[in-house]
Amino acid sequence: MRSQGRPTSAxxxxxxSVGWLAGRSATAQDLILSIGLVRTxxxxxFLYRTGxxxxxxxxxxxxxxxxxxxxxDGREIVxxxxxxxNWFAETTTLSRATIxxxxxxxxxxALVLALRDVDLFAxxxxxxxxxxxxxxxxxxxxxxxQDLLVExxxxxxxxxxxxxxxxLHAKKRLWPEGHVEISQxxxxxxVGVSAPTVxxxxxxxxxxxxxxxxxxGIRIIDANGLAAFRQHDGEPETGHGxxxxxxxxxAAAETDHPDEAHQxxxxxxxxxx
Length: 273
What we know:
Elements: E1 2-5, H1 9-17, H2 19-22, H3 26-34, E2 37-42, E3 46-48, E4 56-62, E5 65-70, E6 76-81, E7 87-88, H4 90-94, E8 102-105, E9 109-116, H5 117-126, H6 131-154, H7 157-170, E10 179-180, H8 184-191, H9 195-207, E11 211-214, E12 217-220, H10 223-227, H11 260-269
Antiparallel strand pairs: 1-2, 2-9, 3-8, 4-7, 4-9, 5-6, 5-8, 10-12, 11-12
Helix pairs in contact: 6-11, 7-9, 8-9
């Protein structure tokens, strides 16, 4: 990790224009950014690990991060964060709690704005009205988790993949020309379904002209079509390949594996902090 001092005017403009901070008043934006320090992390480096005590909240300026949740069976559940303006670790920092999900750099490097706990507490002591802005961030994260819970309990695996791609598009978590840089395994981990489910989903979306798959990612052609996607009764949800046996479609989470609904809910919790 390397500190670079205060953010540049371009970095400040970016953080003011996207994500949580974009919805705050100009006064709140300036006060919050005034205590931030830019840090650069290299590929594979951890911003923090599970079990650490939170001492900073972060705003992503550039790069891609993985939020890593430990599963009960020892596996790692990875949630990909790729949007500049995404803020995280605020609740654990303000409550002086220990970290539940590790954060690791997935890109060549990542630039973040770090708000240290001592500076945050001093700012909130001086400007107590700013508490409501941080409550707004926590509420935004809670809403995301609620939406993911509804998806996990009501949508089929294919429908959840469609909903997540539509969500990424709506939140502008895209590269140029609607291109999402994510592997099929990464998308499976993000949604909380198996890799074969993602493969079947992408085939179904391509047939309908909703996406194109390219090396290293997915190009969104019709985001509205993805949001409206519903699996036909004859479209395979389980089994091997597009003509495999169709599993029951009445289960609560309608997934390939019994623990996929649990994985989907766990995947969403990393975004809550």
